[in-house]
Each structure stands twice: as C-alpha cells, then as structure tokens.
Amino acid sequence: MDNVFSLKGKTLLITGASSGLGKQTAISASHLGAQLIITGRNVEKLADTYSQLEGENHISISADLTKPEDLDRLTENIPPLNGVVYSTGISVLKPTRFIEQADIDQNFSIGFNAPVLLTSRLLAQKKLISGNCSLVFISSISIKYPFVGGAMYISVKAALENYARVLGLELAPKRIRVNCVAPAFVKGPMLDQTREATNEDVIKQIEARQPLGLGKPEDVANAILFYLSDASKWISGTSLILGGG
Fold it and tell me: What single-letter DSSP state applies at residue 65?
C-alpha cells in the first residue's frame, strides 16, 4: 500500500522559506521526498535553508513578493505545482492608538496582498496549479484569542483566513484544496520579537495559556505536511488550531 503521508513525487512552493515556519516546513518536506521551490527576501538566509534541504533538484529563488516584477519572475521560473505554503508575514506589535496608515500598508502588503496576488498569478497560469493540489496558509490562533498590541497582525490573519475559505469554495470543483493552520506562539523569531517588544513576564503569560507548553516550528510544519499530503485529500476550507491544548 502506498504511504499517503509521503510527499515523494510532489513539487511544492514555499514562501517565506528564509526563516521561521517557512524554513522548517521546507526542511521537513524535503525529508519526506518533496521537490521544493523555496523563496524569500533574504538571500543569505534563503541559501542557509537551501543548504539544509535533503535530496536534489530543489530550486531557490530570492524574491520580494510585494513587488509585481518579483512575482512575475517567480511564477515564470517554476514548474507545475502540487502544493503551496504561504508563510509570508510580519509581526509588529503596536497599541491601537498609535496605528498609522504606514502600519496598515506594510502589514497588509506583506501578509495579505502578497499571498493573494501570488495565488492569482499561479491560477492564471493554468499549468502551475491543477487538480489534487493543496494550498496551505499560515493563520494564527490570535484570531480567536487576541492579545494587546496585535491589532494589525490579527487583522491581517483574519482577512487571510476568510480569503482562504472563499478560495477553497471556488477551487473545489477543480479538486484543489485550501486550508489554514492557526498556530499559537512557538519557539522562534516571532516569539523573540515579542520578547524584545514587551518583557519576560509577557512571555511567561503566553506559556501559561498553552497547557502543553510552547511548541516548536516542527510541530507546525508537521501539520502543514499533512495538508500537503494525499492523507488530507478530503479536507478543504478548514483552519486547524495548534495551541498546545
């Protein structure tokens, strides 16, 4: 019997692969046999991710997905895909009374506009996304459990998650699945940014809200890999909360 959890023979595009959850997802997917196209803005960090991939024939393309020319260059240089992981986004904490237009533009440009416009290009070029393809967006548990200072981050994730639901409805006739994973804080760059912007007491409060403790990037990556595999071929339009209990 074939292993439905295997990613052998699948070609996957992973954005935001230069760090955090995107990086770990790329590395973990390579261990399951996937051929990867990884992209990110930081050339050096993207090269580091590439060096940790298992297997051969992977492709690394440095791109800023907020720039139309980079979006075009990326989509013009990748093969047909079996899956896409959208891991672009930023976490800038700011009290609501200090939010300015520049904050709205920056957060939505990176966290919402970029994945939406990338998807439009992938769908417009029919050879890039076809049946039995899985699209996975990284949302956040904070949509359900908001936190002080997270207005911009949470708003972007809420918009992205609802976009994904509509996308799933529209693509279902083509057998293209669309799902989200909604993790709580995990050990990594975003948690470090929160620690720098607040204090250690805030971090302890975050840990206290997660009965199983802080997760690791691998814990989120494993859930994403399930959605990319054929084991999830009857699942679409969902958002899986990963909150340590």
Answer: T
